[in-house]
Fold these 4 entries.
Entry 1:
Amino acid sequence: MSEILQYGADIEIAPKNAYVSVRRKKQFAILQPATKNRFEIGINLKGQEAKGKLEGVSASNAMCSHIIKIADVKEVDEEVLGWIRTAYEHAG
């Protein structure tokens, strides 16, 4: 979260019942526990091809276009932060 907040002063953190919404002018990411052993980062990057850790979401009613699954905090690396930053930049 501390890394994401450095992207800009216009970021709004909105805790919900089951996840945390991260927004600029529009929501660009959600952070949520998925299971006991996995955390998920939802990303809004419509039109972006899924690659690397970025997986496409096929549900038409999904809040995000992509998802990144995290099983260990060490998996939050430059690739993951780069996808979140790209989503932030597209949300402006």
Entry 2:
Amino acid sequence: MNEIFSKLMPIILLLILGFFMKEKNMIKRESVDGIKKIVINMALPSVLFMTFVRMELKKEYFLLTIVIIGFLYILYLCGILINKINFLSNKLNPFVTTGFCFGLLGIPLYETVFGYENLHNITILGIGHEMFMWFIFFNILRMKFKKEKFSMGVIRDFCKSPIIISIVLGIFINLWGFYHIFEEISLLKGLYKTIMYLGSLATPLILIIIGYGLELKKKYMKDSIKLTAIRMGVILLVGYMVKYMVIDRIIDENELFNYAYFTFLILPPPFALPLFVGEYSNEEDKNIANNTVVLSTVLSIVLYIGFILLKV
């Protein structure tokens, strides 16, 4: 039990540190946004590259990617169906019931407790997730609120994303067996060590950023509580139906993967959701979306800590 507490303590303390830094005005919002760009464009891609370049790639992982894309789209359709029920209806439902804050919360939570060496158990869920978010989620969001159509710019942005590049490059080097060159060539060995240093920044910086952003507006609590409850109920129900009916037939029984899948399901909506809603809709929808993301984040962390204490 003491060992579990020692693993959970960094999560709690770094979140508190981020919140404390905001309350004491130790760092400006603009600086936090700059740090977030470093995380998204450098630190997190470094973690993903190192994970995929060394993991054992199995053919079932590619099938799992297709399943995850389908699963996320089913969640979106569930949000549409829920809007048929008057007292649960909210135009944000379809966009709240699907999509996860995978990179900015799922990876640091899982890595902190289970270690970098086991990170592949959750990152294999990330390929399908990122493809869904880039090609389907944000486009549907744009078309819903701005009445725009799919454009080639989406594919261009997808190909330019540091996260996508790091995953593809890691898989390519892994499949072609080029990993050994990072150990044999001094220059590349130094490059790989640099990538490792950048990757080590990801978890602490992400948790501090999350702690900094924990802020709820009372005016929108009723709507955000309803959206959060609907999201968690739908995702857990459909998520475990998909797991028992499909995923368990693809992936061999693996306790660490089961923990990773639970972590994946309880994650909040993407942190970028309020930004996109604010850009494509109105200020009220943006504030409701932001409240929902913050509330879901707090709930996710509480559930994760409780799960670890009970299961591990």
Entry 3:
Amino acid sequence: MQELSNLFKPITVNILNKSDNYMEIVPCNDLNPYIRCFWGSPAPYRNKESTVSNLSRNLVIPDCCMDIIFDIDYCSNKLDNLFCSINDSPFYTAEVKKSSIVSTFGIRFNFWAVHLFSDKDLPKACNEFSEVDNYFKNLKKDIENIVIKYHSIKERVYHVEKLLLRKLYNKPFSNSNLLNGVYHILQAKGATTISNISQYTCVSSRQLERIFREYIGITPKKCCSLVRYQNIWKDLVYKRNLSFSDITYNYGYSDQAHMINDFKKYHGSTPSKSIEELNKGMSHFYNTKID
């Protein structure tokens, strides 16, 4: 699975921004194939209620990952948790309602590895937001104890990594058909077809769909579409010399209008507008610092 994580490193909408209230930490080598990153606030901080609604709402775009998130409000002594499945449309986070001392800790899983940590089958639809113990009951309490006991994100990561490694012990990855199918999709940057995946894996399209739904919760076709979108977004962010015509050709679209409409469906705005917003600087939901 290390090859998969090397092929696919998704980014979010505000990759170029910086924030003192957010950082990402790359997992240890043993967890790198399974986890994109740990993320959250470096330490508890005082948030501020925004007087302008849009400033406290943060755009989240599809990144093909699934997240477990824990939020602590130290003023109310409240601990909330959330599991976010794969999303296939952009959305905004909730507005900040009041000023408080808060802390956030999240685990962003690579989509092909989430089932190794879950207690039951993943949701069979995108855009599900539910309590963590609906799918990770055995993990939830242990992670909550760590998040409560340690206030520093680095301390949290250290202890959570040990917990996740114990979880993986004696639970080897066994479905080679899923791995091969995902590898082909990532290698093609999503610009492939179900027929090509079936030919590469020597597995029927019907069986592939069953496998993907069982282990990931989405179809191979949806997986291709999301991976392709993420690669286009990365090209727009990092390869500013590419034209829209280049992107249209590189990713197998029939015409430029199709590419733009497809991108807008996942991003919420056109490629031109998205880069313009990125350059102006957007808020810091996540994906801002890497340590």
Entry 4:
Amino acid sequence: MNVIELKNVHYQHKAFQLNDITFRVPQGFVTGFIGANGAGKTTIIRLIMDLIEPHDGDIFIFNQKMKNNAVAIKDKIGFVYSELYLNDKWTIKKIENYIAPFYSRWDHEIFKYYIEKFGLSFNKKIKTFSTGMKMKLSIAIAFSHQAELFIFDEPTSGLDPIIRNEVLDIIQKELIDERKTVFISTHIISDLEKIADYLVYIKDGHIALGDFLDNILKQFQIVKGDPQQIDEELVQLTHYFERNKTGYTALTTQANVFYEIFGNSVTITTPTIEDLMVYLEKGTRNNEYDRYENE
């Protein structure tokens, strides 16, 4: 079952465009949503949450369109922004009194558990909280109404490494449940290495990848070898290619061709998520081949 599904979604605002956005978020998994800053991740989350409308295409959440049943759908979603959009003069107690009525399954005991777990105080004003404390409060709110889908928009942005890892551990440990689904948007790719099962990658206004992470990482390989080995025909088999006087680095889905030709004189490794995004963002650099051939 797919908890979120976008089909042929188009959106434009001034010079910014999203073209034919199609992807799914499978139930019971952590889906990482990656792309460079400004690629459209937050815009797509706003489209999913019906905060803005697409110009064309369809968006389904729990197999329904948000506008047809918004209250019931949002009741099942735990939503965490990178910012806490609440009055900073309020205490946590006042925030709970304000938020709880919006959710049919709000559980004060669960909320209290997380507030205490995170070392927060019901009676302190939000303006006294650090960025990390505000993020923990957002997570406590998201976890306290028995949501089935959790959408995180840059949840670790602005956090120091220690707090960032703590937040990721919370997401990983608390949401391991086949009935719970996580959709996490981030530009800090290393955050996804230990928690993501599925990956959606947006580039230049369209979806470049969307599949289970294991399948993606089996598909692509990094090949390194002697710069004298490479020729134009082999470069055409790469998604990214860079060459210098000591060697070349290539991202390819056809590493077997390199191995069949050069055997153990090439090194073939599996990319990390970060390697994959960096190389695909840069794209194939045939000019590197041409530049050294002409020297």
